[in-house]
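Render this sequence as a predicted structure.
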Amino acid sequence: MNIRDTPLRWSGERYPSTDPAGIYNALADLDQPCFVVVTPEGIGAVSGGAVTSGSDTAGLPLLAAAQPLPPQRLGSAAFLAAHGVHQPYMAGAMAGGIASADMVVALAREGFLASYGAAGLLPGTIEKALGRFAAEIPGLPYAVNLIHSPSEDRLEREAVELFLRHGVRCVEASAYMDLTPHVVRYRLAGLYREADGTVVAANRLIAKISRSETAERFMRPAPATLVSALLDQGLITHDQAALAHHVPLADDITVEADSGGHTDRRPLPALLPTILRLRDTVQREHRYTVPIRVGAGGGLGTPVAVAAAFAMGAAYVVTGSVNQSCLESGASTASKAMLAEAGIADCEMAPAADMFEMGVDLQVLKKGTLFPMRAKKLYQLYQAHDGIESIPAADRAKLEQQVFRRPLEDVWQECVGYFERRDPEQLARAAGNPKRRMALVFRWYLGMSSRWAVTGDTDRAMDYQIWCGPAMGSFNDWVTGSYLKTPGNRRVADVAHHLMLGAAFHTRLAQLRSSGVHIPATAGDYRPVPLETPAHDSPAGMR
């Protein structure tokens, strides 16, 4: 049948545009339905109007239509309701305060969820940030990161005590390979039963995982052995212990694919469907009143990638690396400039400071820094020798001259002073253990290298440890030619809005393409332009 004989027609006040710019604007008007029609000038698109039927009805023949699609319709409405946010988007934590208090505040004010990068920070610093949140964004959503550090149990315990004391209602748990009493305590300490019998978990937990076995631990109720131990220690009440089996340990599971920092570098298209199936299996078994939501993170640096995550079934998306280059991040200006020049292949795996002895790696930027090479050398020496004293003289001299820039014994004394204040148990474990002592000295470099990157120490620029994944490179490629190419224009809320607006744009584009409509390439690529009005008031973000 000839398309001009179709009984479906479009009618509206605005005339459809046939040029690429007009088609783009119609696609980008996300609050309005989009119609692709046949005009005397050719195929055109328009936003707004209505579909009518009948060959004698006034209007133009209709080829395809797409419903309004503001960004908040992507993902899970339950995620929006649970966290009190406007869009299913989260800025994940970056340790050492790189995911700064400024970043959390800026995103909360725009209706996004952000996780404060508390990992590696002293309790006093974290407490100051919590005070800011209470004063500057009361009642608005935010999360705080709780990282599992096997070698620093005390910090994890003190962080949970701090969160409970300040009434932190959402925690993002990361780097867990197994459950600890501390993360379980946080979850259970918020359990209570309402008058109608409903079990409520006031302390929300978002678990970031990259392995099925870890995901399953967070999907199931807290293990009975840990519940009993917490009860015996008086850290939870009898009522909370009795309610523990009614809820999963986590409300949300973030599937972390190839990301910056700690990562297993799993491809999202392989990992996300596996975890979604696992969630469904656990749900059939436990029949939770509120099913666990599964989100996606890692590698999400463009609207197309974000749209793909939602298309695969993600309830929400999590970004990381791209936020580190933004104005509000805790990274130094020098680090942000390096990140803004990164390509998708400019990342490498290197030993992690918090899990050095276990041989765990994390993903960092390699362009412009010698850190990955030097960190790997330290781990090779750690594996090969029983202590600092057994390192060959030539290797030790090179370390002291090029890497540490001071005698290793001086570094050890600095470690002693540091751990006396932070975690004396580390020194007790190193007493009489030369290899453990060597590990602490080597970890000094790994820890300081990330600090130099945050403070912008120009003398140590070649030693910067900058956590970064390939999403940073794809983001840089996408924003080339736009106002977001310049680091000084990168505001974290702008990045969030444009990624979500672009994801909705490309989702709508895919719907039209699946109807057999060919959209010109010049009209089918979402490009960020400055947001002149708040994007939650102007969903298209194109005004």
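Summary. The chain is about 40% helix and 15% strand. Confidence is low (pLDDT under 50) at residues 534-543.
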